[in-house]
Amino acid sequence: MGNSESTAEMHRVFNTAANVYDQSGVDFFGPIGRRLVEFSGIRSGDSVLDVGCGRGAVLWPAAAAVGDTGEVIGIDLAEEMVKYADADARSRGMTQVTTQVMNGQVPDFPAGRFDAVVGGFSVFIWTHGAAELRPYRTILRPGGLFSASAPSFFPTATGKWGFLPEDVHDLLLPHLTQPKEGDAYDCPFTNIHNNWLVTPEAVTATLTDAGFTDVAVMEEDLPIVVESGAQWVDWTRSHGMRRLWDRMPAQEAEELATEVARRLDLLRSADGTITLPTPIVYLRGRAPQA
Fold first, then answer.
1. Which of 14, 112, 152, 264 could bridge to 279 as Cys pair (CB 3.0-4.6 Å)?
2. Using CA atoms, how far apart are residues 251 and 249, in angstroms rounded to an integer?
3. CB atoms closer than 10 angstroms to residue 23
4. Judging by beta carbons within 10 Å of its beta carbon (0-12, 13-18, 19+), is residue 194 exposed, middle or buried?
C-alpha cells in the first residue's frame, strides 16, 4: 500500500463532494450499485463489506439482498460521506446497515469476517495491482466473493477512453492524465492506457495473482441521460472527477466547462435530452475454499 493513496487530497475531494455526491439528478451510481449487487451474488443472510460506500449506492441494494438476517457494513475515508450514508440508513429503517469511517485500502477487520466484499466505483481509485487487492481476499471467508465496478478502461474502436463522451474527449483527457503533484493521489487516470483495468485479460490476471479464483469480468454500457451539457458538467463536479476542476485556475475551468457544455448540447435528441452511452466494468473473484 503506497502512502500516496492515503493523502489529504483524496480525503478532501470526497469530503468536499459529499453534500452533492450522487445528488445531481443524473441516474448513475444507483443503477451501477444495483447491477453490482446482482453481479456479486450476495445472498440472504450474508455479511457484506462495502468499501468506499459513499452515500450508499451499493449499501441499499446490498441491504435488500441480505435481508433482516444479514448485515452490511459501509466504510469510507470521508467522514462526511459516512455521515450522509448513516443518516440515510436510519431514515430508511435499514437496521442491518452500519457505517464507519475507515481507509478502504487497509480494512481493519479480522480474517474471514465477510461473505462478500464489494467496491462500487471506489477500489479502482487506489489499486494498482494484485498487492492492493489481497487485503480483501484475506477478510473474506473461504469461498467468499469480492466484486467491484469501475469505469471501463478497455480500448474503444476509436482508441479513446470510453468513459468520456467522444465529442469532449480531447478537451478533458489531458487534464485527467496530468501527473500528481505534492500530496495528490496517484489515481489510475494518470496511466489510463497502462493499468490493471485496461483489458479483461489484465483484470483476470490481477485478480488471479491476488489469490482469487473463478474470476469473471463483464463490460456494459450505462446510458447517462442529461437535459443539457451544463448538467453533465455539474455531474462531473459531484463525484471524483471534481478533482479535474479543482486543480484548474477558476477562469480556465469556467472556459473549459462552457466549451464542454456547448459541444454536448449539439448532441440533443428530438426530445431535448442528451444520451451518452458510458461503459462500466464489473469484476468478481472468489476466495479459495479452505
1. 152
2. 6
3. 13
4. exposed
Q: Is 184 a residue whose pLDDT tops 50?
A: no
Residue type present at position 289: Q
Residue 13: how many other CB atoms lie within 10 Å: 23
Confidence tier at 2 by pLDDT (50, 70, 90): very low
**Residue 158, all three cell numbers:** 476509436
Q: What is the pLDDT of residue 80?
A: 94
Look up cell 478532501; give the residue.
12
Torsion from C-alpha of 42, 44, 46, 49, nearest 10 degrees: 50
CA dist 28 → 33, 91, 189, 236 (Å): 9, 22, 20, 11
Record the pTM: 0.92
DSSP state letter for 272? S
Place of cell 463536479: 237
**C-alpha cell, 45:** 443472510
Q: What are phi and psi of 116, to 5 degrees?
A: -150, 140
Query: What is the SS3 assignment for 50?
Result: strand
Rg (CA), the chain: 18
Helix axes 250-265, 169-176, angle to 10 degrees: 140
Alpha helices in the chain (DSSP H): 8-17, 29-40, 59-66, 79-91, 123-126, 130-138, 169-176, 200-209, 229-236, 242-246, 250-265
3-state secondary structure of 14: helix
**Cα torsion angle, 182, 184, 185, 187, sign:** negative
Which residue is listed with cell 488471479?
Answer: 208
With CA atoms as reference, report the closest residue to 25 among 223, 165, 232: 232
Provide φ and ψ at 141, rounded to 5°.
-70, 160
